[in-house]
Amino acid sequence: MSTAKRTAGKEKQQKDQTKSKWSDRLFLRRPPAFLNPIRRLFEPPEKLIEPYVKNGQVVADLGCGSGYYSFALAELVGNKGKVYAVDLGNNCIRAIEKKARKGGYHNIETHTSSAANVSFIKDRSVDFVLANGLLCSMANHRKEAVSELKRILKETGQAYLSLGAGPPFGYVDQVEWEKVLEGFKVKQGGSYKEKWAVVSVKHD
Ligand SMILES: C[S@@+](CC[C@H](N)C(=O)[O-])C[C@H]1O[C@@H](n2cnc3c(N)ncnc32)[C@H](O)[C@@H]1O
Question: Which range marks the domain in which residue 11 is found?
Answer without folding.
Answer: 1-30
